[in-house]
Write a structure and sequence with these properties.
- Chain B: This is WD repeat and SOCS box-containing protein 1.
- Chain B: InterPro entries: SOCS_box, SOCS_box-like_dom_sf, WD40/YVTN_repeat-like_dom_sf, WD40_PAC1, WD40_repeat_CS, WD40_repeat_dom_sf, WD40_rpt, WSB_SOCS-box_domain.
- Chain B: One of its GO terms (molecular function) is ubiquitin protein ligase activity.
- The complex is a heterodimer of chains A (96) and B (421).
- Chain A has four helices and three strands, in the order ββααβαα.
- Chain A has 96 residues and is of the alpha+beta class.
- Chain A has one domain: Potassium Channel Kv1.1, Chain A (2-Layer Sandwich), CATH 3.30.710.10.
- In chain B, the strands form seven sheets. In chain B, strands 1-27-26-25-24 form a five-stranded mixed sheet, with no helix packed on it.
- Classes of the chains: A alpha+beta (96), B mainly beta (421).
- At the A-B interface, helix 3 and helix 4 of A face helix 4 and helix 6 of B.
Chain lengths: 96, 421
């Protein structure tokens, strides 16, 4: 099941619900939106963040889930220094 | 006397996985002094591992082959004589072929080792990089060895040849460190209470003497952007030096006994120091505040015991490359792995007579050297870093704490960024 998150510049990201639910805060927001129907896509808007920052924030949970409790080498998650400031603020909200 | 805080159940702390060990070879007849492994070091690009075996020899082991041997033959890897090869004078282009083992005879007891590379470490803020590239045709990897008589010998790692002999210290050279920006600036710390700065691109010309310590200097470390040097020594000394002007920035007060080891975090925002007062302190080097304290003896000793013999001296500390973990070696026969946000260790490993420890270049292995010349390797606790931590490291590489405090961001994020959480 999927959740749609929209950025400042109207870029829409469709992400798996389990990934987004890793953050307690977003879980609480989604619960407030009511029950999910089978294929219905709920929308969470991150309208303060631009799309390139939001893309990194959403790529993070698959990186975490993929490499946690895995004995292979953990590769670096690429974060460009130029967006580091905005990315920190964006990542603080879902706390990931 | 307990080794862990009272609220921690000792049995719940995970034991680290051993990867391997290198045992020192048997003592040759004519060498009188014992095997003392005062230091182990990894090359900045991860290609070599240097091991001072005692008896005045240093062995350079190609690291990937060493790891493969450990995995193939189980945990023991006793070096046999057929694989030893003496260093050669005229070696062919070693860089293109498989890297070779070298045994280097240094002529005197080796107290310190450091690898230096003319290639700057990735992600360091490089200064004057074009000037460095003009001087040499190919990338150089050097090994500096600090000896008992105060001399420093510089060897070429690929060929095992002696390149330079630096003579100026009058006492044991206790620690050596190269600047991580590839400029081949070497700083040596000695028991003659001084630190000397050498420029190896200028034929080993000594550029500066840093005076200020009142007693033995035990260790030194460069910050990752090469702008600061930390030197620690006897009589509780922790000094920070500005390496552009070679002046002292500040003294960090807080330890109760000799401070014997120091290491910066990979973003330069944290400084870890280990002392004979049973504690490792994590400082903010930009303003001198103590952010965390890792204790090795509980209840913590009173200042009188902390300042004397308390059987729990911490000998070495090392930051891992993910910026989240710290390893410490103490006299209670344990290696501890800490996370910077918890005040009890996340993993421990048994080790007697440990003297020094170092993380491998990729951060996956911790090597620890012991008093009898052997080296032991463990897998470090790996943890997927949070996105916030990665951003914090990116930002702190270029921004000191004072600038961080002025950012217009919410206070919780500000505290996180200053490592105060």
């Amino acid at each position: 099941m999927y959740v749609k998150s929209v950025s400042l510049d109207d870029h829409e990201f469709i992400i798996k619900r389990q990934h987004v639910l890793m953050s307690r805060m977003i879980k609480a927001i989604l619960r407030g939106l009511g029950q999910f129907a089978e294929n219905e896509i709920k929308e969470v808007s991150f309208r303060v963040n631009s799309s390139h920052v939001l893309a990194k924030v959403h790529a993070c949970p698959s990186y975490v889930v993929g490499y946690t409790n895995n004995s292979t080498e953990i590769p670096e998650f690429p974060t460009a220094p130029k967006i580091a400031g905005e990315l920190l603020m964006a990542a603080n909200f879902p706390d990931c | 006397m307990a080794s862990f805080p009272p609220r921690v159940n000792e049995k719940e702390i995970v034991r680290s996985r051993t990867i391997g060990e290198l045992l020192a070879p048997a003592a040759p007849f004519d060498k009188k002094c014992g095997r003392e492994n005062w230091t182990v070091a990894f090359a900045p690009d991860g290609s070599y591992f240097a091991w001072s075996q005692g008896h005045r020899t240093v062995k350079l082991v190609p690291w990937s082959q060493c790891l493969k041997n450990f995995l193939l033959h189980g945990t023991k890897n006793i070096t046999n004589s057929s694989s030893l090869r003496l260093s050669r004078q005229n070696s062919d282009g070693g860089q293109k072929n498989k890297p070779r083992e070298h045994i280097i005879d240094c002529g005197d007891i080796v107290w310190s080792l450091a690898f230096g590379s003319s290639v700057p470490e990735k992600q360091s803020r490089c200064v004057n990089i074009e000037w460095h590239r003009f001087r040499f045709g190919q990338d150089q990897l050097l090994l500096a060895t600090g000896l008992n008589n105060g001399r420093i010998k510089i060897w070429d790692v690929y060929t095992g040849k002696l390149l330079l002999n630096l003579v100026d210290h009058t006492e044991v050279v206790r620690d050596l460190t190269f600047a991580p920006d590839g400029s081949l600036i070497l700083v040596s710390a000695s028991r003659d209470k001084t630190l000397r700065v050498w420029d190896l691109k200028d034929d080993g010309n000594m550029m500066k003497v840093l005076r200020g310590h009142q007693n033995w200097v035990y260790s030194c470390a460069f910050s990752p952007d090469s702008s600061m040097l930390c030197s620690v020594g006897a009589s509780k000394a922790v000094f920070l030096w500005n390496m552009d002007k070679y002046t002292m920035i500040r003294k960090l007060e807080g330890h109760h006994h000799d401070v014997v080891a120091c290491d910066f975090s990979p973003d330069g925002a944290l400084l870890a120091t280990a002392s004979y007062d049973t504690r490792v302190y994590i400082w903010d080097p930009h303003n001198g505040d103590i952010l965390m304290e890792f204790g090795h003896l509980f209840p913590p000793p009173t200042p009188i015991f902390a300042g004397g013999a308390n059987d729990r001296w911490v000998r070495s500390v090392s930051f891992s490359h993910d910026g989240l973990h710290v390893a410490s070696l103490a006299d209670d026969k344990m290696v501890r792995f800490w996370r910077i946000d918890e005040d009890y260790p996340v993993q421990v490993a048994p080790l007697s007579n440990g003297l020094c420890c170092a993380f491998s270049t990729d951060g996956s292995v911790l090597a620890a050297g012991t008093h009898d010349g052997s080296v032991y390797f463990w897998a470090t606790p790996r943890q997927v870093p949070s996105l916030q931590h990665l951003c914090r490291m990116s930002i702190r590489r270029v921004m000191p704490t004072q600038e961080v405090q002025e950012l217009p961001i919410p206070s919780k994020v500000l505290e996180f960024l200053s490592y105060r959480i």
